[in-house]
Here is the input.
Amino acid sequence: MNYLLGSGYYTNSEFAITWLKRICDSARPKPEKIVIVSVGGERFPKVCFEGFTPNWRDYFSEVNLAGNLGHVGDLLKGKDRDFCGWSAAVITLAMIAYTAELDFIFCESDTLAFGPWVEKLYSDMNDADMVFGGKMESEPFMACAQGLFLIRHRFIPTFVSKYIQMGSDSRLYDGKSDNLPEDKFHRLREAMPDKIKTLSFGVDRQRPLPIDSPVWYAQHFTPEELTLMQEKGLL
Here is the structure.
């Protein structure tokens, strides 16, 4: 389980502190490297590293970029780019992991995971090469969940090439269905079921939160949910 943990960063420094603390407290084994792609001229808050033992700053690298491709919604509204910021960051981070000869775990910047989630990622992937969340059966009803996923090192070039070959995030696929990042992941899994598996844990953007589960993850937390988790001793 030698892996690089990657994410993107744009705003919300307060939650970034919570995010990094959760990674440091629960990622076992710890990542060989944490890499953040920061866009729009933003900087990951260095206060995040204060008080951590061992010094997690030693495992951390940040790619600082002035540009910002934006949300996929910006492309759907007419921004002239093929890939949104999420897609570009995932591709970039995946190739950095490949260059470092490491597996790649992506944990989105608004995602928190609890329990032995690294071990569970690898267990769910088993002898396959990639694993991510299943179709959302409630709001927002996306084709899959992508807040947390794992790609084995040997599969990274295949993932990157196939993802890019699917084309722009904003176009229609076969003139019928969307070509959003979630749709691309879903089609990859359908095309390679022996290589790509589905997570057995977590709710991603669905609710309710499985707070009492031994291992889980979610994203897009409300202030009320964060308060509840603090009261439960999870944060």
Summary: The first helix runs from residue 13 to 26. The two ends are 25 Å apart (CA to CA).
